[in-house]
Fold:
Amino acid sequence: MRKKVTVVGAGNVGATTAHWLAAAELADVVLIDIVDGIPEGKGLDLLEAMPIAKRDVDVLGTQKYEDTANSDIAIITAGVPRKPGMSRDDLLNINYKIMSDVVGKVVKYSPHCILIVVSNPLDAMAQAAFKQSGFPRQRVIGMAGVLDSARFRAFIAKELDVSVENVTAFVLGGHGDTMVPLARYSTVAGIPLPELMSAETIQRLVQRTRDGGAEIVKFLKTGSAFFAPSAAAVEMAEAILKDKKKILPCAAYLDGEYGIQGLFVGVPCKLGTQGIEQIVQIKLLPEEQAALEKSAGAVKELVAVIGV
Structure:
């Protein structure tokens, strides 16, 4: 029997997530939204593309949570996107209400699934999903670090004129202005980044990574990024569905790791069929630890506002 993945939210991020999933033949896909006709239309369109793509997967667009029953993974993209001048934090209260509603419905029909949260503000929404679901912490994961690391990798590859396949990068912390890109753990063909570019260049790329989402919002004017965020969520889903034991930077609920208690913060995680199978603890320099704790503090402020 094929695996089943539900994508909650049929906007740009959700529909593109469904596309990546189906194109990779990872699982049957259910695309669900409350907007009449949108999930049905996009789901049918994607289903009709499968013969051309030569992919044997079923795609269903629906407004009924009954259709999501027994999903292996639920990727939650539902929420209001950012508009120019709007921070992720501005989205907090409205998206918290949406998250609480959809998680309850997903869990009702798929009590054994793994949740991948994409909605912003990411870390706070992952915390909300964790509390609402009642799931163990390994089965609620926030998508942030994979996206932020991909942006950092893209900028490094462009700067050095090398293949993106040669570039690895680590970004820790919350998804936003306080994220912590770690240059000394970032490499090009195994060569540490500080050996290939100046500290000033690294800092410029770090800042562009922090501003990555806002830069795209500024260009689009009426929406936010969706190709890279959806690809990041699908990389996480693939690691889980295929039990790859792949180490990826994810927002995970920390219970003392890195000296942080009771918060979702981006850290290296090993992903497999159980979800987060290990939180990998790396040694941080004092300034890196301080930056991570500052990032965690920003997350703590948000979760205090919504009481989770």
About this structure: The radius of gyration is 19 Å. The chain has nine helices and twelve strands. The CA atoms of residues 269 and 279 lie 5 Å apart.
